[in-house]
Amino acid sequence: MDDDRVNTPPTVRITAPENNATFLAGLEVLITADASDSDGTVARVDFYAGATLVGTSRKAPYSVIWTNVTVLGDYN
Fold first, then answer.
1. Which of 24, 67, 31 is nearest to 47 (CA)?
2. CA separation (Å) from 1 to 4, 5, 6, 8?
3. Beta strand 45-49 with 29-36: parallel, antiparallel or unpaired?
4. How far apart are the first and last CA of the chain?
């Protein structure tokens, strides 16, 4: 049986902080995102700093607070 359905990947956009924002080490940073899935639902949004998981949000508005930010480098 042929299945012509295509699973379109969800889209995620970081809404805060702005691109190229800088922070002092040791502070907390609020990270927020918009996420949607045109042919399904968003179960969760995982937030990363490089390869390090900062946190997970399971419902909109999607956000986490990154605590104890350390000097890690550039994550662009």
1. 31
2. 10, 12, 15, 21
3. unpaired
4. 44
- How crowded is residue 66: how many other Cβ atoms within 10 Å of its Cβ? 17
Phi-psi region of 8 (alpha: psi -120 to 50; beta: other; left: phi over 0): beta
Backbone torsions φ then ψ of 35, nearest 5 degrees = -140, 145
Q: Express each pLDDT in 25-65 by its tens digit.
A: 888 999 999 999 998 899 999 999 888 899 999 999 999 99
Residue whose entry in the numeric block shows the structure tokens 């639902």: 41
Q: Would you say how long the chain is, in residues?
A: 76
- Please tell me the pTM assigned to this model: 0.78
**Hey, what domains does the chain have and what are their CATH numbers?**
11-66 (2.60.40.10)
Task: Report the distance separating Cα 9 and Cα 25, nearest Å.
Answer: 34
Over residues 12-24, mean pLDDT: 91
